[in-house]
Design a protein that fits this description.
globular; nine-stranded mixed beta sheet; 9 strands; Anaerobic Ribonucleotide-triphosphate Reductase Large Chain; single chain; 409 residues; alpha/beta; 15% strand
Length: 409
């Protein structure tokens, strides 16, 4: 079976979760421990013909170990961490670092300047709670919206918002940034995240070339079976590799089975087309999203953590980026599909002059869905300086695709 080609399934990330304290003398030891672990496990994967794209380190809330008494002191501590991380880079493998969650308004206010200075070594999130009536903390949301606006103004083209997200109903052990955070009460752990759009496209395309099924229920049932079989094959392979790795430093807590698309693999929009949807956003999209979510949630033999669902990251996916230019979908479409999948509003470009109240309202809508439907959702918005809805972005980051800016209704 051709889905057994390991090139079709990438290891997007090996993500470690560890606790740092104010004792800076221990930082080098802890960071080195994580880097050594990730590098050793990467070699194991490579020996089994699985490509590892990045290694990531996530810490407990940064207010527990950085000196956040001032911006100057926080930057000084991050400089120490940055130098440590850069000293452990090996063989060109990308190291990404998350400083955990901001827990206070003061810490949220520090983030724009810290992200502007340290970028991909300063991923951070905020976890917004609800009260007993299911009402979100709008004061905290407003401060987060302010941070989003400021990041857009002090980083080129607003690209710094790649490193900041607002979480709703999220648990620890999300391996993908910047939603990742760690709780210092938990032991040092690790999670493996996948990149599988190429795999899904391959098996669907191969099946469709010879399919004779016309009954819709039967067809979608078969789509579920072939995607699940292909994904499970690689999950089982990864399990064998992990079971053979003798490690005492980090506890394995699970995998994130999300497809995790990027601009360097097949677009998730191609998956929708192969499922018979004319384009993402057309009638039938929600049904396809639900089916895909069932595939990711149906993985066996390994514990699932993080999102383990469908990711629709607008400016990380070439097909979704193209869809904005062709007016195939809007922000409402993304929210509607989030009701049956994840990840919320992820990497969504909006006009640079979008008001604080509209940004906050989008966060409240997403957060309300997350808690009402009991699922993890996030908001990562990209206000683009001096551009309006419908205009085309001019991103320069290797991670981002250029697209049309979406209107905030």
């Amino acid at each position: 079976m051709t889905y057994k080609n390991n090139d079709l399934c990438k290891i997007r990330t090996i993500t470690t979760f560890l606790t740092l304290t104010e004792n800076k003398e221990l930082w080098k030891k802890e960071i080195k421990k994580a880097c050594d672990f990730c590098n050793e496990l990467t070699i194991k994967f490579n020996q089994n013909e699985y490509e590892v794209q990045s290694i990531r380190i996530v810490t407990n809330a940064f207010g527990e170990y950085l000196d956040t008494s001032s911006l100057k002191s926080a930057k000084a501590d991050l400089e120490v961490l940055s130098n440590l991380l850069n000293s452990f880079v090996s063989d060109g493998l990308r190291i990404r670092f998350a400083i955990g969650e901001a827990k206070t308004v003061q810490e949220v206010e520090l983030l724009p300047e810290l992200i502007a200075s340290y970028g991909d070594l300063c991923n951070a999130c905020v976890n917004v709670p609800v009260n007993d009536y299911g009402i979100l903390d709008n004061e905290l949301i407003t401060h987060c919206s302010n941070a989003v606006q400021k990041i857009s103004k002090i980083t080129p083209r607003g690209e710094g918002n790649f490193n900041f997200t607002v979480n709703f109903n999220c648990e620890p052990f999300i391996p993908y940034f910047p939603a990742s955070f760690h709780n210092s009460s938990l032991e040092n752990s690790y999670v493996v995240g996948f990149e599988t759009p190429d795999l899904l496209v391959h098996v669907l395309d191969e099946f469709n070339k010879n399919r004779k099924i016309v009954n819709h229920q039967e067809l979608f049932g078969k789509y579920y079976e072939i995607m699940s079989e292909a994904l499970q094959y690689h999950v089982d392979n990864v399990k064998v590799i992990l079971d053979s790795y003798d490690n005492k430093e980090f506890k394995f807590v699970g995998i994130d089975s999300s497809a995790a698309p990027s601009k360097n693999c097949s677009s998730m929009t191609k998956v929708y087309e192969l499922l018979g949807v004319p384009y993402f956003g057309a009638a039938g999209s929600v049904e396809a999203s639900s089916l895909l979510t069932k595939v990711f949630k149906g993985v066996k033999n390994m514990p699932l953590v993080g999102f383990s669902g469908l990711m629709l990251a607008v400016i990380e996916d070439l097909g979704l980026a193209k869809g904005t230019i062709e007016n195939n979908y809007d922000i409402r479409t993304l929210l509607t599909n989030s009701a049956v999948c994840g990840i919320g509003l992820d990497t969504v470009p909006i006009a640079g002059n979008t008001s604080l109240s509209k940004i906050s309202a989008l966060m409240r809508d997403t957060g309300t869905m997350a808690f009402r439907l009991n699922k993890p959702l996030t908001v990562r918005l990209f206000p683009y300086p001096n551009k309006k809805a419908g205009e085309i972005t001019e991103y320069e980051s290797d991670d981002l695709c250029n697209c049309a800016i979406l209107a905030v209704p």
